[in-house]
Specification:
disordered N terminus; five-stranded mixed beta sheet; 8 helices; single chain; globular; Sulfite Oxidase, Chain A, domain 2; alpha+beta; binds molybdenum atom; about 325 residues; binds the ligand Nc1nc2c(c(=O)[nH]1)N[C@H]1C(S)=C(S)[C@@H](COP(=O)(O)O)O[C@H]1N2
Amino acid sequence: MSRIRSSDITDRRIYLNRRSFMQGLVAAAGGVALVADTAFAGQPAPHGRKLTTVRSALSTTEKPNSWEDITTYNNFYEFGTGKSDPAANAPKYHPPQPWTVSVEGECAKPGRMNLEDILKGETLEDRIYRHRCVEGWSMIIPWVGFPLANLVKKAQPTSKAKFVEFTTVLDPKQMPGQRDDVLQWPYVEGLRMDEAVHPLTILSVGVYGEVLPNQNGAPLRLVVPWKYGFKGGKSIVRIRFVERQPRTSWMINWPEAYGFYSNVNPMVPHPRHRQDMEARLPSFFRSTRTQMFNGYADQVASLYKGMDLRKNY
Ligand SMILES: Nc1nc2c(c(=O)[nH]1)N[C@H]1C(S)=C(S)[C@@H](COP(=O)(O)O)O[C@H]1N2
Ligand SMILES: [Mo]
């Protein structure tokens, strides 16, 4: 099958929109960008526009999935519940320009921040991470991002801030999925403070050295590689520091299946999905053994010392 390039499914207006977003990124990152990155030579460059990045030491050495796998097999219920719905519907979405994130709650520096300001002074890193969906499939994804801890630091959370809540944009006019009540909208996710500032936790603005396609959560999405994929909220417009554990959209949807922690754990099955094996796309056979904390146990197991992970699923 021939590759679907996003230039084929993106109209010119959106292309220009993406360009101006890119220019914002370039300005923000201080004149980087538009430089070919050799790390992924041989992979298609669907927009022909690359970000300048540095390779992160926290990357896995496993071979990344193809651009096509990563951008055409997605979960993004705002654009439909089918795996191919986001690639079909999300390219038509117009992110507001400029994209602003409201930083709220228990912090000394609340306020609205433009994405450009958020990226100012950040070094964008290639973070090749394992990505494990609770439904049983997995991929290796070369994200581009920066540590969430950097943004948390700028906000100066107070001692009352025990959790961080992440909210996706609410735009039912442009997001057909938000006109159905499959989930509570807007999509809400959350992390404990120590999880949020862990060096593996990133905010991503790109994949394969390019600006994030809409279906992957443009322009800014959360990535927490030791947790199931649904913890990675997309298209984030609000980050709130709170004292109490946030009520996330998935917990409200089905609390017995979706706990707050949702750490990848081969020993705790989901009511509908076993978790001890996974299908590494593009294969649909569950022939890969799932690792505790998705293979990141050395880095994160200490966060959960003394906790019963069967209860705190
Ligand atoms: N706003 C929002 N974020 C979301 C979702 C969603 O439906 N809406 N799906 C989650 C799920 S279930 C997964 S597995 C990942 C998929 O990310 P990817 O499409 O970039 O692979 O996004 C997560 N973030
Ligand atoms: Mo998922």
